[in-house]
Protein 1
Amino acid sequence: MENLRAVIYLSIFLSVMTYVCQGERSTENQLPSAPDEPTFGLELAEALQGLLDEADSRVGLSVEKKASVIPRCDVGERCAMKHGPRIGRLCDCLRGTACNTFFLRCY
């Protein structure tokens, strides 16, 4: 019972103090307002764009797709690898043989 009474008195005291101190906020502790124009972000974006343009001209990025060349494997060699439900090809079997998906070898 005493704990309940102490909690009630404490909550009343805190609510009264909050109400009294609400109008006495100091302007020193507030953060400065943001400027109207974000100049730093704009300068940073322009510098980054210039750096990217310079890197593109120097490196010469190409988007060409290279043809993948799959090596040939002999009969009995491992031609695929199973990773979960997927089967990945390691090599292409010689003419007249096929990759057995159960044994993962050329037969």
Protein 2
Amino acid sequence: MPAEDLVDIKFRLFDGSDIGPFRYSATSTVDMLKQRIVSDWPKGKTITPKAVTEVKLISSGKILDNNKTVGQCQVPFGEVAGGGVIVMHVVIQPSLAKTKTEKKIDDSPRKIVCSCSIL
């Protein structure tokens, strides 16, 4: 594979630390990048993704779609700073279904007591 088809990407976390850089093919999908982030997530962080679906990648101010390739997401080479390493920001967004199930909701039937008086 020619070197120009490879892209160096590092992932910036919420606390300013980085994962990477790693070298990817321009045909790698955003979903593949997210899988790498989840598997290489640093130990001891207060926020940790449990699944790829909780990870959002942002590059050049845009949230990247899972089915897009690195080649489709990258900025033109003239605009890449820092020695040719692309920085993508990582946002962790826990799934809503999980958040709702973690809250304890008392759905048990309630007895209604009425203390009405008839005049």
Protein 3
Amino acid sequence: MEEEFHVLAVDDNLIDRKLVERILKISSCKVTTAENGLRALEYLGLGNSQQTESLTTNSVMKVNLIITDYCMPGMTGFELLKIVKESSNFKEVPVVILSSENIPTRINK
């Protein structure tokens, strides 16, 4: 059986999270949602820096894409991106950062 394309959608806004989830499910994706960066890291097994590298690949959730809002309380989408890219298990996973704010310096970063 073919494995579903799995997307982790991270957004503090419930309506935006549900919208992304619905669009992706219409496209036959498996979708997991998280309301903030810390929850996303917990889901990925990266919540505690001590355990980050000790996880075996088999115990790590398979995620093909992460879509995250930029502006969230506690941790920005960019901070989430940096942690994900520092992880040996997830550094190859594409991360898309969304923002409704038109801030050129943020877009360039």
